[in-house]
Amino acid sequence: xxxxxENFTNMMKDEKEGTDNDIDLSSELPQxxxxxxxxxxxxxxxxINTLQKKNSKAVRRYKKELELRPYQAELIxxxxxxxxxxxxxxxxxxxxxxxxxGGTIRRVSRYMNExxxxxxxxxKPTEHQRTQWYFQRYVEQFPRGGEIVMFDRSWYxxxxxxxxxxxxxxxEYKNFMRGVVGFEKDLVRQGTVLVKLYFSxxxxxxxxxxxxxxxxxxxxxxxxxxxxxxxxxxxxFTSVKYDMLKKTHTSSTPWTIIRxxxxxxxxLNVLRVLLNSVPYKRFNPELNFIPxxxxxxxxxxxxxIMEADRIKKGKFKA
Length: 318
Hints:
By secondary structure, the chain is an alpha/beta fold.
């Protein structure tokens, strides 16, 4: 028998019978320790508590979404009204960073007819757009008859973000503040339903949401360079917020303030505000359509609150 044949024969024999050189790994495997009954019960209870906590959170989230459903159904009826009457509707979602605008927009649009609404979130203007009339790129996105357009931030960038970060000149800011009221009154006079929502969140809650964005890989994309400076520039944003409300809240183009520390109650009340803005036929008249007065504040009332805080504490609260 040649050497190759002998080696092959020995290898096959070793696989069947094992050899003296085989290593016994059984001694290296961790041995399962038998816990005393009391410790087994404690461990099992901890596992049950963990599962219940996870399930409880999921159930709470599901119930919250379920509470929105009847109002989301009403929005479909509202859409039908706009289509039948050929009315146009514009909804502005404004407010501080991490105040809950995006999540609310998703709940508003979730069951809507996609053919009759659009969500517009314009980025930084191009050099060409900067030479145009400021409102032009927004007007290009305006709705046709029977359509809703939701602006995730709007022309009010010029009243809030741009002056705080120096993205516009003082003259550009003044021109905007002088012209925006007339611009909006023309829209309303010509039949457009205009709803202006400002989401108001506390500094502490904004900070908590930013921290979550930093550590959550699914939310990190939301964190921008502007966001990172929002806390440091809190008082500056508060000041321009007051000026914006003071100069652009009118009886025909009012602001509605949404207290959004609690995201769910904010979303629920935004749905009520929207449904009350159009005289459509209610799908379910038994629903509660009255906004919560602790969550929904008129622009005029917010101005009064801010002025009272300034007198009492020497500066605006939020």
